[in-house]
Amino acid sequence: MDMKFSFIFCCVFAVHFSIAQDAAGLYKSGDSLYKLKDYKNSALAYSAGIKMQGKETAMARYRTAAASWALANTPDSSFYLLGIVAKSDKISKTDLQQIEAGVDYSALRTDKRWQPLLDQMRKQAEKNGYPQEEFIYGRKDGMGLLMVWIKPKVKSNGKAIISVRSGNWVSGYNGIEIPPGGIDQYLAKGFTLFAVFHGSQPRYAIPDEVEDLKRAVRYIRYNATKFGIDPGHIGITGGSSGGNLSLLVATADEKINATASDPVDRVSSRVQAVAVLFPPTDLLNWSSLGNIINTFQLQKNYKVWGAFDFRVWNPAFYTYDEVTDTSARNKIGKEISPIYAVSPDDPPVFIIHGDADPTVPLQQSESIIARFREAGVPNRLVIKKGGKHNGDDMNPEWQEFADWFEKYLK
Predict the structure, then answer these.
(1) Which of 151, 219, 356, 404 has the largest count of CB atoms under 10 Å?
(2) What CATH architecture is 132-408?
(3) What is the pLDDT of residue 12?
(4) Domain assignments of the chain as residue spans, ordered by start
(5) What is the phi-psi region of residue 206: left when phi exceeds 0, alpha when psi lies from -120 to 50, beta otherwise?
(6) Coil, strand, or helix at residue 381?
(7) What pLDDT digit, counting tens, does each position of 355-391 carry?
(8) Exposed, middle or buried by CB within 10 Å (0-12, 13-18, 19+), for 366?
(9) Are 355 and 234 in contact (CB under 8 A)?
């Protein structure tokens, strides 16, 4: 039985997994079965999800399915999936590294197909990469703030997109050698990409992170000639906490310090369009939970306490003192909730949110979109039926973000 036939046979056999389940449900079933060490049925669930999702399937799904097939002692199906990965225009060096080092693939390493497959993956990952350079866009506390300038392979359209690399208000440098998280759609249309990393909780709270991102916008605008972009055509995008931070930058009042000692700080931090996924927008009204600014145990349970660990500088003792007063904390909570900053001069906003999101309630997007509509700000809200808190569930509409920026970054 050849590899392709074996895989197709298994997908047909897996049809029982697809009844009343979407791809996300199948992947969830696969995860549960994997934890139970039921690797064969885990592989069947993953494979059925891949078949259902088609070309929108992320590389991580192929890797996970292939790993389960390997653990189920079905190497032909595993190699078939890894062969698709090896030919994909989505494979990155990170994918390759995770496959090379993954213990779940141990049974495949003595197979004569293993090394040629890795060589093919390495070649394709190199081909898929985009030209890029790293820049320090600011400095604080003796540390540099990093951004990665990623250039399109096609002719540049002179417009820039800032991708806020953030989850749980933590920013991490991971897999940046090929644009992760759907941002390659912008490069394909000629946008110049800036993957921006901010100071992270628990060391830095949300107000600090917002200032980092405003600095990044100013740095890009000030150096527009170097980057080959129009300083008046900058968009911003992010998901979850990255969506929150993107909206905070987008709705912020224009404040330019014309007398700043650093010339970068003398230019605007405004953006001209924004597109985000499932963003927290109103921390004082978190669906049925209400105000979550002072719910410390809840913040710790969700591992975001550091993002709400507000502190103020005490020049008398050279310390950052914790803000404990409830009213003072609520004031800061309002400032980091973009819904309270909406005004008619805000840039056009596109939001996608799932109606089954277990992390950020759909109400967070619906309420801020209502405010944008009241203010007359161009907007679009897509509600994904059954969509949870992950990018895969937001496709194919997520791929329309580039069209949004093309329309409004005129």
Answers:
(1) 219
(2) 3-Layer(aba) Sandwich (3.40)
(3) 45
(4) 3-128, 132-408
(5) alpha
(6) strand
(7) 999 999 999 999 999 999 999 999 999 999 999 998 8
(8) middle
(9) no
